[in-house]
Specification:
The structure is a homodimer.
Chain A lengths: L2 H5 L7 H11 L5 E2 H11 L5 H13 L3 E5 L5 E5 L9 E6 L5 E5 L15
Antiparallel strand pairs in A: 1-3, 2-3, 4-5
Helix pairs in contact in A: 2-3, 3-4
Chain A binds a DNA duplex (25 and 25 nucleotides) through helix 4.
Chain lengths: ~120, ~120
DNA sequence: CTACTTGCAAACACTTTGCACATCC
DNA sequence: GGATGTGCAAAGTGTTTGCAAGTAG
């Protein structure tokens, strides 16, 4: 189901790309590039960190992945459509006290209205 | 009023420290270390970037300054007690759609309850 | 054969650390 | 003179880029 998204853009659905999507789709964690690299490295030792970064960049451009930060200096990545955590959900973070609230994603009502999300 | 906080810890209230606090207390912006460095540099060309970083670290330990990130790869700093923006206020950020809501700080009711802020 | 992919190493941007000198009390 | 503070340069960390080699269609 993912191959077509690549082919449609003249891109190839290579082993590294499939492996990285696999890792992202089988966790609800917010992974860093290195997390993903290490996870993939078990099965495919040939895949380098550079490829992980480039693939993530590509997946973001394709609208499949979000990138964000939790304040520890490294980027985090998450599949937008994830069977384990479906739909669009928000991450509310109080940068002062570090409280993080994951909510949304069509699993029912939230205590907060979702607003219009101005850029 | 700040000197005492330093002396009480056996620390000195030096010119760089005063200058950096000055910059922070005269803006409501969320400044990066380099922003602060450049602002201070006009009046005190001798103050280096290293000192800015070390002073900010110290101010955080002292509980005077917050550090956080807006997702552009650099840290941002803000005075906790700021005459222009008083009291404790939260920064709610949806990391997905980038909406940022500043609220709180004792200027009246918010649309959201503030919760208990678990770590 | 042409465009797309990749790994390695080098380059980058921001931040931290090592060290010698300066300063305060 | 001992602890604190500083600037410079070097090291560190996470990320991106240059480049030559590999591969699909």
């Amino acid at each position: 189901m993912n191959e077509g998204r690549f082919r449609g853009r003249g891109l190839r659905f290579t082993e590294p790309r499939r492996a990285i999507l696999d890792v992202l789709s089988t966790t609800t964690d917010h992974l860093s590039a290195e997390d993903i690299y290490l996870a993939v490295h078990g099965d495919y030792p040939g895949i380098g960190l550079t490829t992980v970064y480039r693939t993530l960049e590509l997946l973001i451009e394709m609208g499949l992945v979000y990138r964000f930060q939790f304040g520890d200096g490294r980027n985090r990545y998450e599949l937008i459509q994830n069977r384990l955590k479906p739909g669009h959900h928000h991450h509310l973070v109080c940068i002062n006290c570090k409280k993080i609230i994951d909510y949304g994603g069509g699993r029912g009502r939230n205590r907060f209205s979702s607003g219009s999300g101005r850029k």
